[in-house]
Every structure is written in C-alpha cells, then in structure tokens.
Amino acid sequence: MADSLKHSASSSSSALSSQHPRLLQAHDLLRKAEKLTKLSLFNWSSDWVAATPLYEQAATAFKLAKVPDTAKLCYEKAATGQERLSSPWTAGKHMESAGQLAKELGLIDEAVDSYRRASELFLHCGKVQPSADVLSRGARAVEDERSEIAVRMYLDACAMLEEDGREQMAFDNYRAAVNLYVKLNRFKDAAAVLVRWGQSADKCHATQSQCKAYLSAVIVHLYDEDLKQAQQCYNDCSQVNAFSRSDQSETAEKLLSAYCEGNPDEIRHVVSSSHIITHLDHTIVRLAKQLPKGDVKAASVVEPGDDELNEEDLT
Amino acid sequence: MSLIDILARVDVLCKKYEKYDVDKQGGADSVSGQDQFAKLYAVVEADIEATLQKAEAAKNEKNRAAVATLNSEVRRSKAALRAELPKLQKLAAKKIRDITKEQQAARLDMVEELAARIDEISDGVVVNRQSTMLGGKAGMSKPMEIRVDTMDPDDLMRPEHYEDTEESTSFRQEFQARKARQDQGLDVIAEGLSTLKDIAADINEELDKQEPLINEVDTKIDKAAADLKNTNVKLKDTVTKAPYTLHYDHNKLGLVSILLDFG
C-alpha cells in the first residue's frame, strides 16, 4: 500500500510539479510522514505524534490541488493517527472528509464504510449529535447509488437521536427516509416510517408534525391502493388524543369516507379543496394530487377492534 | 382708579348680576306661556329641519348601509316629532293674555302645518303609486302599496298579495348574488388563515427544537469566557512580573495588548 502510494505520488509529482509548487510541498510532507510511520529495521515504532499533522497538511494540500485519491489516503492515515493519539473527534472529522472524497471518486462502498467509521468515532467521544449528523450526511451522499444503505443510515441516525432523547433533531432524517422510500416506490415502508415519525413526535410533544405524519401515512396507503390498511392506520392513529382532535384527522376522515363511497370526483374535490393537504411535505402532496389511483370500489368501513370481538364466536 | 380699571369693574359687576337682567332673559313670567309655545314651536321646527337634512343626505348617499341607517333615524325622529305635536296643540289651545284670538287660531293652524310637514319627510319607505304593474296584477282594483306595519285584512285575503313582484324577485336575486360574493371572500380569508396557522405551528415547533440548543451554546460560551478571563489574568501577571530586559518580545507585547483589551 505504501509502495502504491509512493508510486502515485511520484508520478503525479513529475506530471504537475512544474505547475503546482504546493503539490511538490505536499508530496514532501507525505514522504516525511511515511518515513516516520513506516516500520523498518531502523524504525521500531511509528511516531504518530509528528506524523499526524504532516498527514493532515498533505491531505489538505492534495485536496486543494484536486488530487482526490491521494488526499483520501492521507485523510485516512491522519484519522488513524488521531485515533492513536486518542482524539477520536478529529479522527472522525478526517474519516468524514475521506468519505466525501471517496464518493467523489465514485468508490461508494468505501465512502459508506468511511462514514460509518466516522460515526463510530464520534460515538466514542460520546457526542451523539455529530455522530448522527455524519450518518445523515453520508446517507445523502450515497442515496443516489445505494438507496437501501442510505435509508438504513437515515434510520440508524434517527434511532441514535431518539436514544439520546433528542427526537426533535431526528425529524429531518425521517423526512429524508420517507422521501427515499417513496422514490423507490416502497410505500408500505414509507408509511411505516411515517408512523414511527409520528411516535417520535409524540414523545417530544410536536403535535403539528405528528398529525402531519399520520395524515401522510394515510395518504401513502391510499396511493398504494390499500384502503383497508389506510383505514386501519387511521383507526390506530385516532387512538392518539392529539391526532383525533386535529384538522388533519378531519381531512383524513373525509378522504376515507370519499373512498368508501367509491366516488372519485369526491376524492379529487376533497384533495383540491383541502388547505391541510397543501401544507404537507411536497412528495406527499404530489401523491395526494394523483389520488384516486386505480379503480375505486365502494368498500365497507372497518370498525376498530373488529378482529378481536366477534359476536358469533361463542368460545 | 384709571378708566380701564373702572371698565373692568363694571364688566365684573354686570356678569355677577346677569340673572336680574330683564332684557337678557327675554320677558317676564307673564309672557312665559307664550314663550313656552314659541319655544316648543321653535324646537320642533329645528328638529324638522334636521330631519329634512338627514332625508336629503339619505337621498344622496351611495352606501346602502348608510342609507338604511339614515332612513331609520329619519323615521325615529318623525315618530318623536309626531309625539311632540299633541303637546304643542295643548299649549296652543291654552288661553294666554297679551295674545289676540286671531293669533291663537293662527297657532292651531301652525301646529297642523307642522304635522303635514313631518309627514312629508321622506324616510325611504317606498310608496308605490304607479298604476303600471306586471301582467300578473292586471285587473286589480287598487294599486299595491308597500306599507310598513300596516296590514289590511282585505290585502291579506287577496291572493296576489303573496306573489313575487318584479321588485321582490330582483331584490331576492341581488341578495343571493351578494351572499355568494361574500362567501367567496370568506373562503379566501379562510385559506389565508389556515396557511398562517400552519406556518405558526411550524415556527412553534422550530422554536421548541432550538431552545435547548441555544441553552447549550449559552453554557458553553459562558465557560469559554470564564476560561479566557482566567487566562488573561494569569498572562497579565506573568508579563508584569517578568524582569525587564532590553530584548523584549514584540509578539508577546502585541498579544498582551490584544488580550488586555479583551478582558
């Protein structure tokens, strides 16, 4: 690995040395740092204390000179150095930079690994917020190519924040996760995340977000052409006091009754005349505007607790 | 005492004894009866004038609501004036000396004239004297008058009484149109209000979210400021206690001056 590093360094230096004196300097720094850390006959222990700042300087210089692969390597080395110096905070920061560069280079899996490592390092320091932040930034970086992994990262970040009691900060991550699921057309998962969002909002008494999340869940189920699920979802959510008293629950009820009647014009009328729906997240509004999707048949209303209480069952 | 002082004293004395001034009071008690009638007559006439002016204003007013208010006021004052008239008549009939019989008769005439003038004041009640009516009313014996609070039993029995006239249908239509316009306006307001409510709720949540963050920042900055103060004090001590040498460090002096400004 060190050989390849030297090789790439020397080749790029010979190509660009005439134009970038800073690049030369960066290569020098890198060589010095390598010498300090490389174990050999004459060097029994790596001197990370001196090497780490050299690595950092080299990394920034390479980044400015737009040589991302060497810069990435330098960042990784610097991160290891900082770890050894028991400063996980800076190590985490370097790993994040390495992840960014990896994404630029198109090495997505490496980028994912770097971001996760950075998050772990921040957790070592006991700083939950930056850890979750780096996860969400990483997820945003890779969401185009690795949507599954990105969603995982978003949800992990949310779980981390909820554990720490900072549910409020998780809302952005939930929103991003829902948008990703909708983009992937995985509506059931999207609705599940929305309900989870609602639960999180309930804990921190964010009633507005909670009601919006529940209404969005109902709309997503309806878009998925699953009336039964939508009604069950609505019934479950109505158990929550805050939701049952809100405007959003009224809109949901109107929408569901229009669906039960099987009247597409009524559905469209409810959606277009409702002020509440326009204030939801724009992806959800887009879904709502496309309702009713598919055929709408008049269905029977599912009573709450229908499954448990069966009067015919005398056992 | 100068002339000016005398004049001032005279003015003060006159003012003090004003109530004994016969000319100012306008006649002795004996003439008060006549004055009562004249006074009341003058008051009623003034009221009639005021009411007439209001009626004129109502005719020229464009705003329907203002017209309705003015008309109702006119009607009220007319009713009040009509109530005053019997009093006036009684006063006119009272026999008072220093007044001739002709004058007394003339007074009664004046009172009747007043009554006629009061009735003449227009108060917005539409009196339909036109004989050209809709086809539905052809062959009717007498024209329909719109009267407020007067119901003739004959009128009630007549079937045409309950039909819509041209005016009433157009009035109804206008009412419906205005009501629809009002509803539209109210819808716009409702939409704006719901947007405002949503934005306000979101702002509320944002503020709730940021409050603990700001508290954290606050404590951290307090700590940092305390640390800086301590450092400044220590540095100041070190620098002032250090022995004076010819070779003094420019950097340190510069740093010290900045820090001393700070702390």
Automatic annotation (TrEMBL), chain A:
One GO location term (cellular component): SNARE complex
Keyword annotations of the record: ER-Golgi transport, Membrane, Protein transport, Transport
Pfam families: SNAP
A GO term for molecular function: syntaxin binding
GO biological process annotation, one example: intracellular protein transport
Major localisation: membrane
Membrane topology: Peripheral membrane protein
InterPro entries reported in the protein's UniProt record: NSF_attach, TPR-like_helical_dom_sf
Keyword set includes Nucleotide-binding: no
SUPFAM superfamilies, per database record: TPR-like
Location of this chain's protein in the cell: Membrane
Family in the record: Belongs to the SNAP family.
Protein name: Gamma-soluble NSF attachment protein
